[in-house]
Amino acid sequence: MISVRAARLGVRALTLVGVALSLPACATITRGTSQTFTVESTPPAAHVSTSNGFQCEATPCTFRMPRKDPFRVTISLEGYVTQEHQIDSGVSGAGGAGFAGNVLVGGLIGMTVDATSGAMNDLRPNPLIVTLLTPEEHAAAQAEAERQAAAAPAAASGSAD
Q1: What is the Rg, in whole angstroms, of the alpha carbon atoms belonging to the chain?
Q2: Quick one: which of 70, 78, 77, 49 has its CA closest to 61?
Q3: Nearest C-alpha neighbor of 99 from the set 109, 110, 84, 87
Q4: Tens digits of per-residue pLDDT, 11-59?
Q5: Contact yes or no for 48/78 (Cβ under 8 A)
Q6: Torsion angles phi and psi, residue 4, rounded to 5
Q7: What distances in angstroms separate CA 32 from CA 27, 54, 57, 74, 82, one per listed residue?
Q8: How far apart are CA 138 and CA 140, in angstroms?
Q9: Each residue's pLDDT tens digit, 80-116
Q10: Environment class of residue 96 by beta-carbon count within 10 Å: exposed (0-12), middle (13-18) or buried (19+)?
Q11: What is the C-alpha to C-alpha distance for residues 130 and 102, in angstroms, rounded to an integer?
C-alpha cells in the first residue's frame, strides 16, 4: 500500500510538472506572438492590402500582425503608381533576449515555443513609410536612375587610369 506521504509527494510532483509544461516561453510571455504594424503614405488616404489578408481603406493604418511570417504590402491610390513592399520577419534583440531567458526558466520547451511561434521576431521595416509618385514622377525617377547607372561605369573606368 502507498503511504499518504508518498501519495502527497507524487501529487506535488505531478502538479509541478504540469505547471512547468503549461508555462509558455519567455519571449512569448514578454513580447507576444503579434505586434502592431503601421503603414504611412504621402499623400495620405491610400488603400493598403497585405498578402496575409489584412486591409485598410485609408492610410495611415495600423494593424495587429503576427510576428512569425514575412508578407507583402500593396499601397495604391488613384492617380499614383501602385507600390509593393516586402516586410520581413527576423529575430530582434529583445526577442533574442527572451529566447535566451529560456535557459533560466523555460528550458527546451520554452525555446521551442518561442522559435515556432514567432515571439522572438520583429517585422521590418516598421513603420513602412512610402511616398507615392504620379506616373510622370515615376517615369522621371526611372530615367534619372538609368542615367546614373549608365554614368557609373564611365566614371569608374575614368578613375582607374
Answers
A1: 26
A2: 49
A3: 110
A4: 676 555 544 444 444 555 667 789 999 999 999 999 999 999 999 999 9
A5: no
A6: -60, -40
A7: 7, 19, 27, 26, 32
A8: 5
A9: 999 999 999 988 765 444 555 555 555 565 666 666 6
A10: middle
A11: 38
Distances (CA, A) of 81 to 39, 52, 62, 88, 110: 16, 22, 22, 23, 45
Contact 48, 59 (CB under 8 A): yes
Residue 48 CA, distance from chain mean position: 17
CA dist 2 to 7, 83, 125, Å? 7, 71, 61
User: Of 37, 35, 67, which is closest to residue 55 (Cα–Cα)?
Assistant: 37
The x, y and z cell numbers of residue 15, run together, are 502538479
Per the structure block, which three cell numbers stand in for 100? 535566451
Give the separation between CA 40 and CA 52, rounded to whole angstroms.
19
Measured CA to CA in angstroms, residue 136 lies from 131, 132, 133, 140, 143 at distances of 14, 11, 8, 6, 11
The model's pTM: 0.69
